[in-house]
Specification:
Shape: globular
Number of strands: 9
Structural class: alpha+beta
Oligomer: single chain
Strand content: 25-35%
Length: 188
């Protein structure tokens, strides 16, 4: 297993729709294994292939809920169904999220409370997960990456302005920027 560099906003692969996975082979197994290791070291609760420079429709997730239940898996060629997103202002305490492709930044974002994820695993076995709360948020966040959408693209105007300011301040937004989990973070 290897820790992979995580791309930062501005890299084209992060802003384009990923392609379906067609080859279920050792290369894919190695990618998934490396993604789990990268996510662990980062640390994060989800990681999409485009974030490590691979334009394929897959993501990994690893999160333990308040009842100490571990939710861990790989979603390959996923589909996602959502309940309607609640209306109103996002709560800064309960609805803030971050992104490994915008390291160190967090902003509140309204998301659907319920999600149904359908995908296949490495053995091409179909599965379905019905999620609520934070797990539903993780699925929505990672699925967005597969469509070239970063969570900052979905922020309300006030927070979108703050996110754009943070990107400018850190000199992000251009191709060629990444960070390696386990090593020193980018300069503030």
């Amino acid at each position: 297993m290897a820790v992979l560099p995580i791309l930062i906003t501005g890299e084209p692969v992060l802003h384009h729709t990923a392609e379906p996975v067609t080859a279920f082979d050792r290369t894919l197994e190695r990618l998934v294994s490396d993604m789990f290791e990268t996510m662990k070291v980062a640390p994060g609760v989800g990681l999409a292939a485009p974030q490590v420079g691979v334009p394929l429709r897959l993501f990994v997730y690893n999160w333990t809920d308040d009842a100490e239940v571990l939710h861990r898996g790989v979603a390959i060629n996923p589909q996602l169904w959502l309940s309607p997103t609640p209306v109103g202002e996002p709560d800064e305490d309960d609805e803030s999220e971050g992104c490994l492709s915008l390291p160190g930044e967090r902003f509140p974002l309204r998301r659907a409370q319920l999600a149904t994820l359908r995908a296949v695993d490495l053995a091409q076995k179909p599965f379905e997960v019905r999620a609520e709360g934070w797990l539903a948020r993780i699925f929505q966040h990672e699925y967005d990456h597969l469509d070239g959408i970063l969570y900052a693209d979905r922020l309300d105007a006030e927070y979108a302005k703050a996110a754009k300011k943070a990107v400018r301040k850190r000199n992000w937004g251009d191709p060629g920027l990444s960070w390696l989990p386990g090593e020193e973070h980018l300069e503030d």
